[in-house]
Each structure stands twice: as structure tokens, then as C-alpha cells.
Amino acid sequence: MLDLTLYVKFFLGLIAIINPFGLLPVFVSLTSHQTEVERNQTGKIANFAVVVILLVTIFAGQHILNLFSISLSAFRIAGGSLICIIAMSMLQGKLGEVKRNKEEDREASGMESVAVVPLALPLMAGPGAISSVIVSAAEHNTLENLIGMSITVILFGLLSFSLFRMAPLIFKVLGNTGINVITRLMGLLMLSIGIEVIGAGIKGLFPGVMA
């Protein structure tokens, strides 16, 4: 039987970590030179790319860990730490240097197409999102759960695309202040997720410490 609680938690985790609300100002800025049709096409390609990246991560993540002989517990600690770093940046109302840096910003400003780079990767399907998906898929690695998480990723992509379609209106209504408030709330949720992942990793590596 499919565990709906698992998928709801996974879905909310994707929203918190990828934070499509917080990316709306960046999306509007990167597509400011485009027509409405071109902007919608950019949003569609970006979210399609994110879905593909995360689907590949769901099914290949555990194999990548095995290839490099990395234990799930060690990866939990590393991934959780990265999630916490990004969350601390979000709590300050910023995307953070972990997701993008000044050099990438300069490259993006000169690109004609920004859908895949930098929107899909690394802004949306960044290290934090990929780490979180690998951990979730490795923890719940039955075929039913992998299919359920895949459907959840597709639903997230549809939600994110809908937000991007309404980006100018949402950004106009919420403004920078509203976007920053949502980003900070997402950062707090993300920090909680990161700490929980680190705790599970420490318990797995040192079972006697947290017995």
C-alpha cells in the first residue's frame, strides 16, 4: 500500500528546498527581455528539466552512492549539512552562494536561453534538492515508493510551472517583502529537515551514541 504521509512529506520537502516562490523574482529578472509566450516556454522547459533531473536522481541515486562506496548515513550527514547551509541563507532572505554565485549571474545575464542553466540547474535542482531526493529514495527504495515519489516530483513540476506562469502577477501582489517572508518560512522548514537528516545520519554511523 502506498504511504500517502511519505509522499506528502516528500512533496512539502521539495517545496521548502527548491522554494519556487523565492525564485519568482529571479525568474522575472532572467526573463524580463522575453515576451509572455517566450517566458511561459522558458518556465515549461525549466520545470521539465527539473523533473527529469530529479527522476534520474530517484532511480540512480543509490547506485551512485554504491559506485563510490558511500554509506547512506555518511551521505545523510553531508546532505543534511548542505541543506542547513542553504536554509541559513534563506533565513536571511537570500538564495545563497551555494545555489549560485556572481560569476554564474554574469554568465546568465548574457545567455539567450536561461531555462536549463541557471534556472533548472543549479537554482532549482541544486545540490540541496538532489541530496534530499537521494536520501529519500535510498530510505524508501521499494519499487512502489520510487514510483510514488516519481509521481510526486511530476506534481511538484506542474505546481512550479503554474507559479512561474503567474510569476509577474504574484511578484506584483507579494512584492519583495512578501517573497522574502515566504523564503524565510521555507528556510525554517528546510533547516528542520536538514537537522533531522543529520540526526538520522549520526544515529546510523554511531548507533551507540543516540541509543
List the helices and strands and how they pair.
Layout lengths: L3 H15 L5 H7 L5 H32 L4 H20 L10 H8 L5 H10 L2 H13 L3 H23 L1 H39 L6
Return Rg in Å: 17 Å
Structural class designation: mainly alpha
Distance between the termini: 30 Å
Low-confidence stretches: 108-112
Instruction: Characterize the main sheet.
Output: none
Rounded mean pLDDT score = 85
Number of helices: 9
Beta percentage is under 5%
Q: How do the SSEs run, as a string of H and E?
A: HHHHHHHHH
- Range of helix content: over 70%
Shape: globular
Number of strands: 0
What does this protein look like?
It is a multi-pass membrane protein. The chain is globular and about 55 Å long. It contains nine helices and no strands. It has 211 residues and is an all-alpha fold.
